[in-house]
Design goal:
The complex is a heterodimer of chains A (about 650) and B (about 80).
Chain A lengths: L2 H4 L2 E7 L5 H9 L16 E7 L2 E7 L11 H12 L4 E7 L3 H14 L3 E6 L1 H6 L2 E3 L1 H8 L3 E3 L8 H12 L14 H9 L12 H12 L1 H21 L1 E3 L6 H9 L5 H44 L4 H19 L2 H17 L1 H15 L7 H7 L3 H7 L6 H11 L5 H14 L2 H29 L10 E3 L7 H35 L9 H8 L1 H6 L4 H12 L3 H9 L6 H11 L2 H13 L4 H11 L2 H30 L1
Parallel strand pairs in A: 1-3, 1-4, 4-5, 5-7
Antiparallel strand pairs in A: 2-3, 6-8
Helix pairs in contact in A: 4-10, 9-10, 12-13, 12-14, 13-21, 14-21, 16-17, 16-18, 17-18, 17-28, 18-20, 19-20, 19-26, 19-27, 20-27, 21-28, 22-24, 24-25, 27-29, 28-29
Chain B lengths: L4 E3 L8 E7 L3 H9 L7 E7 L6 E5 L2 E5 L1 H4 L2 E5 L2
Antiparallel strand pairs in B: 1-6, 2-3, 2-6, 3-4, 4-5
Classes of the chains: A alpha/beta (about 650), B alpha+beta (about 80).
Chain lengths: ~650, ~80
Amino acid sequence: MSEKAVRPIKVAIIGNPNVGKSALFNSITGASQIIGNWCGKTTEVCTMAVHYDNKEFHFTDLPGIYGYGSHSSEEILVNDFLREDPPEVVMVVLDAMNLERGIYLLLETLERYHHVMVILNKLDAALEQDLIVYHDRLEAELQVPVVPEKKQGSLDTVELFSTIVEVASHLAPRRNYAIRYGEKVERALAQCKGTVHDDSLGSVRWLLLKRLEAESDTLQSDIISTRYNVAEDIAARITAKRPTGDTLSDRIDRWALHPVWGGPLMLLVFGIMFYLTFAISRPLSEWIANAFELLGPFLTEWFAVWNVPELLSDLMVGGILKGVGAAMGFLPQMAMFFLFYSLIQDSGYMVRIVFLADKIMSAMGMNGKTFLPLVLGCSCNVNGILASRILSSRYDRTVAILVSSYAPCPARLGVMVFLVSAFFASTAATVVMLSLLGISLFLMVFVAYIVSLFIPRDGESSFMMELPPYQTPTLQGMTTSAVWLTLNFVHRIRNVIIAASVVMWCLSNFPAGPFEQTYIVKIGKILEPVGNLMGLNWQLIVALIFGVAAKESVLSSLGIIYHAAQDSGNLAEILTHSISPLTAFTFLLVYMIYTPCVTTLVTMYQETKDWRIVMYGALGSVASAVVLGSLVFHGGRLLLG
Amino acid sequence: MAEKELTLDIAAAQQEMTITGVSGSQAQKTRMLQMGFTPGTRVRIIRRAPLADPVEVKVRGTKMLLRRDECRNIRVASAE
């Protein structure tokens, strides 16, 4: 048994953004890493081991790049990876629909490395547009093995692995492919010959080219232009195209990106998405809530039979089961959201949204892509935070995460609508609601500004991106990613939900006795001086504390605190008698901004792994709530006399 | 006949132009060149977004989205 057979073959997957690297990676490794139509989707490097024919292969999915520069974060990441862990095989993925850019990257790869192979995909999509790509001609032109993928997921495994083994086992490395550059470049190359040596980083010629590129703008432009011209010629030689008019994608874009109708159409798409999300998920949520409600008494009885101490049984039923039930009630909505999210992403509409919203968002100090997390944050802040993954720079992502936690989610809106309609007549109520939402919009801009003080806004970050044609997403791909994302989400929050339920239960049940004696009321009373700044009494503060666990629980806790009967009409009446409209308005304002719910905060941490951002999300919001609340309360008192 | 040079941000929509050069910071220039905005390449503005920014252009057979600031760094001449 030779040692060579034991060593795994390392394969690095390289390609332009959106070329289908992740899809290929998934079909080879069988993993359910999400397939996406979005730049910057593969933000982390993912390596998977695959065993085939008694050999071990390590595939690495690298972020999409256009060349081996050192300017964008993706390029730096790829270069670092290739330096630290040189692969045996460099697998370049080419998109048949976007050949010139792909061949450009392939040419640079061939100049750099010996062990290169090509996967040519999206041949079916090209054929649909009367574009035929001859993979054998590409093979002949560049002397590089090409494995065609006729339809997505139809890659010939035998051919794939035998090609990898063959490329990896080239005994004598082939000579690198060399492009004949212009006289100026070739002369400069000859001049600095002998100053660098061949190493695992790449061939001498490529290293020299990189050095020239860095030294002179003219040479860089010459080198890249020449390489692109070669790519253009090769692309022309390996394809046959029948001239076609506008594609279906072009015709859709005429409406979807229309200067006047594009915006309203986008809002309509969001509207339908929200409507369907709630229409479909609400009955399911109710069903889950009912199931948990039925489970409660059943469990209590069952615990009694088994002589479980009453306190423990109460903790299980009144604390954990209730908390978990509340969280599970959100699951259908979350799953629906993930389904639509995949639809928007996989179809290619996401990039169009960025196109339509970028100007408005950048006026507010945010990236155009932030629009999506913000809108989705209105369905649930957690969704907005998860959607912030589409942003690549740290500044943009932090802003998107913090801003989406200010988006008015249905739980918040529900409470707000109830209280506003209890305190104000219809016209006043509309003004109050709109002013509350206006204030939260203002806060979002403010947050973007605050973040820019701590995280430098990456001036070099470029917006430029490709606008790929629309794709028909597969139902299987969509449901797989929806289910996977939902389960992943449950897995990540379950411990926190249980812990939070236990804490809330303990605070509101100890010390045993009347509710007024419990810790939570004591905490409320301790915080009353702060509340007084904003005109809030301890009752309202306790309600706000309950709201941290789940925003919608503010209403039910107000009910308990003010001893309201189950009937909500009663609560409204009691409240209007106990607090003034000004206090109510201040309370609503504070409620809207003081802090996102625990689930949102946990998701914030999960997505950033940075406690400072979570602290800002929680404490920064509390601080701004106190400041704004005091201003509004005292300002209001002055104005109203 | 030498055409007057202008930048892509002020080019008329649907007009076929030829790139004469790119400017901007080192990173911006490299990125634009790598994405195929090399001198001599044909480029055409397809449409502008609702507030005239960003801009959708066609280059090298594919469509790209660029902010107006980015277009300002691309010098073009009318392609005749």
